[in-house]
Amino acid sequence: MHTTGRFNYFPYLLLVPALVITIVIVAWPLVETFRLSFTDAALKPDENFVGFENYEKIFSGRFPEVIGRTFVWMFWSVGLKMIVGTLGAVLLNAAVPGRGLFRVLVMPPWVVPIAIGVFIWGWMYNGQWGMISGVAQIIGLVDGPFEFLAYRDTAFIATIVTDVWIGTPLVTIYLLAAMQSIPNDLHEAAWVDGASRAYRFRRITLPLILPAVATMSLLSSIWTFNSFDIIWILTEGGPRGGTTTMIIDTYKTAISRFRYGEGAARAVLIVLFLSAFAGFYFYLISRFARGGADNDQ
Fold this sequence. Notes:
Layout: H1 10-36, H2 53-60, H3 63-93, H4 99-105, H5 108-111, H6 114-125, H7 131-138, H8 152-180, H9 184-192, H10 197-225, H11 229-234, H12 246-256, H13 260-296
Helix pairs in contact: 1-13, 2-13, 3-8, 3-10, 8-10, 10-13, 12-13
């Protein structure tokens, strides 16, 4: 059979626009940020190469505390979202009257624009006319108006609660879809054998939705770690830095204080952390895929 040996360039030409957009929007900013992290760039016409000085400033200051706070905030936010989301998925998967309506009602916190939802929570946290402070006074938890966002600990908890409220619906719907993919025959066979509801969840439902749980946990970790708007709208990182995470600190350093070099160094660390999360995510996905392929054989 005779072949002309001509190479077809057309499929590769179709990839050129996507490649150009990726280079302009993703690759070039990353390279430029990495370059700026080794300079003293600021509001001045010139910049000088300073080596690792910006990175030394990071670890000699309070940024390690900010890193720890970021991971604590992410741990509690993601953990609560996964727990509440799993419980919500179990309830929405149960055969109860009005199940379709409940599935619709669970979505507003995620569908409503984040800024609007956070502003509502900010009003609820207000000590003078907020609902939470009013209820706390009625039941005797506090003696008078209490400003939740005025103290480090309560402000930190408030940001976590708000983030959980916004992120839980997506977790719930995602895990609900995973539960509905489980064949009913498995539950029916276990029910005939006398297995309780808790036993069926522990030995059938949970192991089968484990890949979905791992995937959503990692994706939620990346989104929460990179979250900016919730904390910024509620507290702007205060009071006294009590809710300042890596993203907030980077923004304040680079944009508010105009220290572009130091801000770029912080951004590089964030990219490294997020790359580690993404690498672990793809590792789990490939491992689950290999496990599924082995089970099919």
